[in-house]
Specification:
Length: about 250
Amino acid sequence: MHDPAAPDPNDRDYPALMAPGARDLDALDARLVDCRACPRLVEWREEVGRVRRAAFRDETYWARPVPGFGPADAPLAVIGLAPAAHGGNRTGRLFTGDPTSDFLFAALHAAGLAALPHSRSRDDGQRLYGTRLVSPVHCVPPDNRPSPAERDNCRPWMARELDLLGPALRAAVVLGGFGWQALMPVLTAAGYAVPRPRPVFGHGAHTRIEGPDGPLDLIGCYHPSPRNTSTKRLTPAMATEVFRHAARLAGAGR
């Protein structure tokens, strides 16, 4: 039962009220999964969970906000877009249970950042080494397109997550232009000296931004969506090289 003294999860300001006070990532994730601040996203994630894809018709979908994944002291963050309808929204773990996740984890594994070359369920034994998956938007959006308002509503969760990673954070791989654009105001608000004009996203783009706890290396990578991987815009070799570069900069991996 909802505590009447606590903010209403349906309130648009729920993320802004609840994220900053989370004492650690476990507390942040516990608050996050209750969030219902964006009505369009709530309706869509729950509809997907009710209707289900035929291949998963006997499964119970997570159909809630999907928290980050990885150790609390990770020096490397991998920043995506939002959970996939039948991937993270089904399994409850980012980049899990679909072709995009298998492509991503194959590259992370090849770079020494993941225990397994695939990510299929929350109990598959997957572990990340010195790396945390972070999402600017935590609910699956229709057509994989969050609105600017939904992105902004969700921002406090990512801001607090990166803040809690704290001084250990040394590098971030950003998967696609949406994540790159969503990250910049978070870094500015956290005291990073984001240059003007802002750095431009591109595959392999690398910029170093000074922050209150030291520099942060940002590396761009095309998003491992089926559109990008099927057209070879992003190949396994390209993704693996980005993650190896990021691992060297951050001192992450095995």
